[in-house]
Amino acid sequence: MADAQPFDSRDGVIWFDGAFVPWSDAKVHVLTHGLHYASGVFEGERAYGGVIFKMREHNQRLIESARLLGFEIPFTVEQIDRACVETLARQGFEDAYVRPIAWRGSEMMGVAAQQNTIHLAIAVWQWPSYFDPAQRLKGIRVDLAEWRRPDPRTAPSRAKATGLYMICTLSKHAAEQKGYADALMLDWRGQVAECTGANVFFVKDGALHTPTPDCFLDGITRRTVIDLARKRGVEVIERAIMPEELAGFEQCFICGTAAEVTPVSEIAQWRFTVGDLTKALMEDYEATVRPAAKAEVAAA
Ligand SMILES: Cc1ncc(COP(=O)(O)O)c(C=O)c1O
């Protein structure tokens, strides 16, 4: 689904290296290390009712992702938090998506970039639903990707690094060309891993099953959903899941900051129902992100 307005010419401001610049002026040079060698890390955060859900965790992960790529963001987590809050306020949105991104600059051009300065930008826009809302309620259709999540000895898989999204874009484009909404990627061993922007869960006999995040992002939403399920007394089993097992699962959903909790009706040849536990966790997630936001606003 293409947005009507291109992302390089929108209204408002972007926080760029410590100052606000008009949205259309937030530019980098073509000889930027981050563009050529994927030396970039980013976050995806959501604000509900004017408050960014689990902002500190996201911004700490941003700093950690940079550390895993061998660079240090020249701002503290407190400064990044404040910048996210200020950007949200300047944009004037209550419900919005927040995108901090850090990258290596232009001082050196080549694989080595030891002297390059590190930049940080934060943009905020409205992104109501990651998937088509009607499809979302019925459960989205997901294909099985040809590309696999790499061995952690091949890539820093715990980092939310721009380069790792090359695999996601290839997989998502291939799925969309076949009419699917997303793709489920296996990992280098052939085990079920994650979707292109979300983690995956399955339901069987009242229990939740989800892959152990040992070579892909252990999502903040994933951990929130695990806590919510356990609060309901639901057993959560983190383990290696092989694709053949998908035939035996009754329900499936994916979750992530952008995707929130989204039911899945099919993955390649396997079918799932949008069942009670999936619906209950969608509601629990909504209730967790919303009232907390309101309470914090009231207390501020
Ligand atoms: C590849 C991938 N996996 C998982 C997730 C879920 O992470 P989180 O819940 O922290 O947003 C994301 C979300 O950005 C993602 O891009």
UniProtKB/TrEMBL annotation:
EC numbers for this chain = 2.6.1.42
Provide the GO biological process annotations.
isoleucine biosynthetic process; L-leucine biosynthetic process; L-valine biosynthetic process
- What is the documented function of this protein? Acts on leucine, isoleucine and valine.
Required cofactor(s): pyridoxal 5'-phosphate
One Pfam family matching this protein? Aminotran_4
Gene3D superfamilies, from UniProt?
A: 3.30.470.10, D-amino Acid Aminotransferase, subunit A, domain 2
What chemistry does it catalyse, as a reaction equation?
L-leucine + 2-oxoglutarate = 4-methyl-2-oxopentanoate + L-glutamate; L-isoleucine + 2-oxoglutarate = (S)-3-methyl-2-oxopentanoate + L-glutamate; L-valine + 2-oxoglutarate = 3-methyl-2-oxobutanoate + L-glutamate
Which pathway does the protein contribute to?
Amino-acid biosynthesis; L-leucine biosynthesis; L-leucine from 3-methyl-2-oxobutanoate: step 4/4; Amino-acid biosynthesis; L-valine biosynthesis; L-valine from pyruvate: step 4/4; Amino-acid biosynthesis; L-isoleucine biosynthesis; L-isoleucine from 2-oxobutanoate: step 4/4
Its family? Belongs to the class-IV pyridoxal-phosphate-dependent aminotransferase family.
* Gene Ontology MF terms in the entry: branched-chain-amino-acid transaminase activity
Q: What is this protein called?
A: Branched-chain-amino-acid aminotransferase
For whether the record's keyword set contains Transferase, the answer is: yes
Native organism taxonomy: Bacteria, Pseudomonadati, Pseudomonadota, Alphaproteobacteria, Hyphomicrobiales
Q: Which SUPFAM superfamilies match?
A: D-aminoacid aminotransferase-like PLP-dependent enzymes (SSF56752)
CDD domains assigned: BCAT_beta_family
Which keywords, in A-to-Z order, does the entry hold? Amino-acid biosynthesis, Aminotransferase, Branched-chain amino acid biosynthesis, Pyridoxal phosphate, Transferase
